[in-house]
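Bug report

Summary: structure tokens for ABC transporter substrate-binding protein differ between web form and batch submission.
Environment: batch mode, default settings.
Steps: 1) Submit the sequence below via batch. 2) Compare with the web form result.

Sequence submitted:
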Amino acid sequence: MASSRNGGPVRATSSSLTRRSFLRGAIGVAATAGAAGALAGCGGASSNAGTTTEKVLRFGVANPKASFDTQITSNTWGASENVCDTLIRLNPDSKQLEPVLVTSLPTVSEDGLTYTFELKDGVKFHDGSTLTAEDVRYTLTRVLAKQAQSDGYDKIAGAKDVVSGAATELAGFSAQDDRHFTITLSQPFSSFPYLLAQFYASIYPHEACEAAGDSWGTGTDFIGCGPFKLESNDDSTEVVLTAFDEYHDGKPAIDRVEVHYIDDGNTRMMNYTNGDIDLCFLDTSLLDQYKSNDDVSGQIVYYTPAATQFLNINLNDESFQDVRVRQALSLAINRQELCDTILSGAAKPCSAFIPSSETGYDKSAEVLPYDPDQARKLLAEAGATDLHLTAQVRSQDQAVMVAIQNYWQQVGVTVDVQVIDSGLWRESRSNGSLSLTLVTWSTLSFVGVEHMGSYFRSDKAKTRSSFYDSPAFDAYVDAARSSQDEATQLDNAIQADRQLVRVDYGTIPVDWPQNPYVLREGYEGLEMLVDPHFRKVTYNK
């Protein structure tokens, strides 16, 4: 659910902005705001043979230099979400699941193990073939065989045999005919439907994917049954998507999406202000500059990804053994000030671990308190009045860690901040040698209990330099995962969050990233959910 790739920062602080750098898991809103009159150029429409006006959206993004096949990489800009469809999707506004390729959400057996689906009739792939249950079987089996970087698919019965190579058929999948099938799990797992909304589970046409072989996802060897067809791809400068006339949910209002590869963040924004592109993500390092630009400031939009930045503390380290020390370190951080200054307003202070973009968010929780006097008192009670810590972070996290260093210095805690290579950081976190670091952890499922559980459940925490081991937390997570009752799931997710953050202080949440992008006036209906979704975009100017 929360990808192991997502240990990197969600906010973009460098010139490269791909799925890996703003990952993903994100919920956004349609946006049209501000005055674009002073901007040079004109977006939205282009002439075709001098007679027909096409509605075009031009999207500037860094070249990921990677396949569009999300079963082997997650480092793309969202090609799979616009070319392909999943069985079900997560509504970015309501955060409720909705049927896409199926007639309704699946029915679930009383024991929570068997999910029953019915495909829509007559759904077409871009090559003219018709979607069948065989394509679904093929896709899910391939996800496992390719060992996509995602948690949870191994809950399907027989999945581990496919992963290990002991089987080529997925035992938990059974097709009754071309449109009816069941998926059986090896154990109850209430988050399973959310997995089917992830881009990992984009449905591929069996015959076309097999025929393409290793070239699938490169060039134009990538088709689906989504709202847009892949018309051209030169791999280096531009990708063109065109609206699919036979899309099962109705042809999109935008005729064409032009994806322009522009690696440098400054250059992307220059292209935007010159009117050469209509949409791009705004690096937070440039945010203050463009917030003060009257021609652009009104067109900046923020969306809340399913991500949390937190201090990962190694509970095997003697410095962190006393819960009063961990509580004091949390109390010493002025999260609101940090978000407003160091993060340029592109973040919200944490009140818990689970952000508002996910299920399990605690609406009643207030921002984690800032109380340096109480922090000093707790440190004194714990006999930690001369505490010296070492924080090893990656370069993109240095500014935030230095700010926290200054907050802690004010309560008598000294921190040596060391910047280390990302490769060494990953290795050190895996082998348990990091004492203190900053992590931004994201989820593609938008399920809060999976977001937490994938990092802090005891079986996971020991592999991430955390070593948090709370039977109470594990029990709450397991109860939420096994229940089919939404109220029970929510209650246990909130209790797990409180146990982790406000009782055990097993980690110290800092902020929830707010990722900015710019969208030209006249465009409406853009959805942000991990990546941009263009199916509902309209242009009216």
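Above is the batch result. After comparison, the two runs are identical; trailing whitespace caused the diff. The two ends are 40 Å apart (CA to CA). Residues 328 and 375 are 4 Å apart (CA to CA).
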